[in-house]
Amino acid sequence: MFFKRTIEEDIKKYLNSKETKTLFIWGPRRSGKTTLISKLASELGVKRYNFDLESDREKFAPRKEELEAIVKENKVILIDEVQNYPEATVMIKLLHDEFGVKVIATGSSELRQKSKDFDTMAGRFHEIYCLPLSIFEIFENLKPKTDEEKEFKKQLAERLQIFGSYPEIYAREELSEKERIDLLQYILDAYVLKDIIDIYELKNEKLAKDILIKVALQLGSEVSIREIAESLRAYPSTVSNYIEIFIKNYILIPLPSFKTNIRKAVSENRKLYFYDLGIRNILIQDFRDLDLRPDKGGVFENFIILELEKWRRLTNAKVNIYFYREYGGREVDIVIEDYKKNYTACEVKIDKGQVKDIFPLPHIMETITGQVYFEKIAAVLKNK
């Protein structure tokens, strides 16, 4: 089943405009980027160049005469996995400056870190994001009947908290539970770990996995780099570098502590959450029903934060997302700050319960529970 993605409207607007800046589509492997660009190639009648293949990379030598031949063959140039050719930035810049041709390139954002020439692209590109399926994308594609919406949303939240929302995991109804777990293990081993180890030339795949496991066991808690380093007998700088790579490659979501001039928050640590809970659960080897799990509160909190983060990326919303903690230990799970310094404070609870409103700045207060998570996320995001 092919799911229509939110960013298809952005791509359509780009293609129908006179814009010739390159359109980068960033996101983790297996999030649907190749499916999108293959569909585009078919609709436009052009070739999809795959930079996983050396033969395709060789066609894009940064020489005017060779690029001219590609431009003549393709009214729009589509490139998949552009991060595998860091020198591509010189070529893409030439396509913009010399030929004024539209280029759509998918990949991981490490191209910005790996290419010494990426800064020369300033003013020559736009960027959008293709992430694992969001709850709103799933709802719009499946469109349950009105009298079935409540049960649909309940089952949707449970399913995404256990198996995540990678398109090939969610959309393939024929998969058994064992097949879903095996596929998640494959994605973890072949893409989340091996791909990053290869791209960044990291020396220790076991350490990378162990760091992710440590983070996976601390959902909802502040993560201490030093404590993780000590427990794994690694240097704090090494652990920090690995975590930053996981963040840049859409595996981990950082949630910083909010600071105010009124009441300084005590923590310099961040909380870390996963872009996909299926990946988190395969790391700790736990696919039990949520009611049987002692970590269900942290899992639900991760679920809400990753949906907010997907929405922020997909819509290019001008907001920052934090947590807030006082010296006495009291916390606000989520603080959303827009660029006009309007604040929404959110408490995340699986079930209803008492909420203490402690955020010190003027704000709107929301409580997001398992019963009304869909409506509350939509309300929090409205007009942002």
From TrEMBL:
Transmembrane regions listed in the UniProt entry: none
Domain (AAA+ ATPase): residue spans on this chain: 19-133
Domain of life according to the entry: Bacteria
Record-linked Pfam families: AAA_14, DUF4143
Positions in coiled-coil regions: none
Name of this protein: AAA+ ATPase domain-containing protein
Source organism of the structure: Candidatus Daviesbacteria bacterium RIFCSPLOWO2_01_FULL_39_12
